[in-house]
Fold:
Amino acid sequence: MTLTLLIVSRQAKEYRAFFEAARLPELSFSDEPTSEVDILFGEPDRIRSALPSVPALRWAQSNWAGVEPLLEPDVRRDYILTNAQGVFGKLMAEFVFTYILAYERKLIERFQAQSSLKWDDRRTGSPRRKTLGLLGVGSIGMEIARTAKFFEMHVKGLTRKNENCPYVDEYYHGKPEITGLATNTDYLVSVLPATNITRRIIDKNVLAALPTHALFFNVGRGSAVDESALIDALRQKKLAGAILDVFDREPLPAGHPFWKTPNLTLTFHTAAPSLVEDIGALFIENYQLFRAGQPVKYQVDFERGY
Amino acid sequence: MTLTLLIVSRQAKEYRAFFEAARLPELSFSDEPTSEVDILFGEPDRIRSALPSVPALRWAQSNWAGVEPLLEPDVRRDYILTNAQGVFGKLMAEFVFTYILAYERKLIERFQAQSSLKWDDRRTGSPRRKTLGLLGVGSIGMEIARTAKFFEMHVKGLTRKNENCPYVDEYYHGKPEITGLATNTDYLVSVLPATNITRRIIDKNVLAALPTHALFFNVGRGSAVDESALIDALRQKKLAGAILDVFDREPLPAGHPFWKTPNLTLTFHTAAPSLVEDIGALFIENYQLFRAGQPVKYQVDFERGY
Structure:
């Protein structure tokens, strides 16, 4: 039995080439939404737009982790929805270490020295023997911790109960212990999701506990950070810098004070992109399971929302 | 028996604090060169200046790898000379991956976008699945290869005979095969020393073989690169960029064309600094061996020169 796939993605061309190269058995491609389409693949907003025109849909694979547009109450749920998981941890770790290494190596300062035709051989540092504090030790936190251990760092982790990460040297528990975790931490990294408990959990006290040479990273959700406390702390040099990938509103509105806060680096929600090779491989794996009538990976529970 | 140490270093204070904290048995510190001094520690040029004033010298530990000032023909050789080794590979690897990750992440471009108040969420890349080509697979090359494998890259290595590096996937041999190595290599990294064989070995043909998106790194010695071929290749966009840490003359003279070659990054010979913690630990290890009358690590053969 042939299955018909419609790709609804901003990178439709690249995904199509990737799937064609894989020569998936009994798969045909459709160029538009029709009653022939069995499978949708792409971004959740585009999947949602296509839903009314693909009545025979049996399975949709999102190439993002977040599938909010497909969870709204009046949207049909008579198909299997899978999202992208298990591919973002390594990218997040690469992101965090890009900026840790660039800071240790004074990359921006040396770039500016070269532009001014100045020989700048100021001493360089190393992450080795320094301490990384991780707020959240799930699958993404674990990849960051694994990379920190590769670079011979000491790793502290904030957790509610999971103490099974082989790359965390020392655990702290819940909100009351965050300030203790921040003390003597060179790099504080939040991968916290947006929940009632995490809301503004990184506040004035946590930031004040960091050493003045520390960097703070937010790669989780914007709501975990008290924005004005962070701006104050950076202005008062309570920490050396912050790298923010996520914000309450994206793109960050013009005129937002973050644009001009000293030592604040904005990375525009690029930390963990959906790469064609990663998500394409996930689709191929799931396609083979689906075709064999076996359970697919990362099926979303519409009620639970993930 | 007490041994007397004189520290002759630009970072004498930091080293002194490090050694004092280690409470080395039967070690006393001298503040100036006298006939009491048994041990010198510091940069080779400063060791050389102190030599005439420390007649009882038995051992000198250089905190650099290169000890050229102590190898000149008329300089005394009646003491044990040890140099710094085994500590630079990790720093070199951190250096190379600082710039690989910054390139994949478009760090400079995003920094400039932020300065212009622009939201820049252009797609980011990853070293994963890309190819690193290593010219030289000794102890430093091995650390770079090990880091490349951590980031799930494919590693090619140029070697004369050693094929024992567990992190190299594919070997190439000698000058005739460099062009083949460069083909389809995303990141070409030279750790080659200055010898007659390596002189200008990275020439026009090697650079032309690289893909146009490739980066070239020189962290070995400046003489391995044909400078004008590199400038031409960068001007003609035969490769995307080069990162040079070492030069025929340092500091790079004002007016040298490298200062203004497009897509050329200068890092001012900062790739692998002598860190107090690294070299201090090496001295402590050697002190304990020396005191016990055992062979010290990394003794320099004055005739051979390393």
User: Anything to note?
Assistant: The mean pLDDT of chain A is 95. The longest strand of chain A covers residues 3-8. The longest helix of chain A spans residues 88-104. The radius of gyration of chain A is 22 Å.
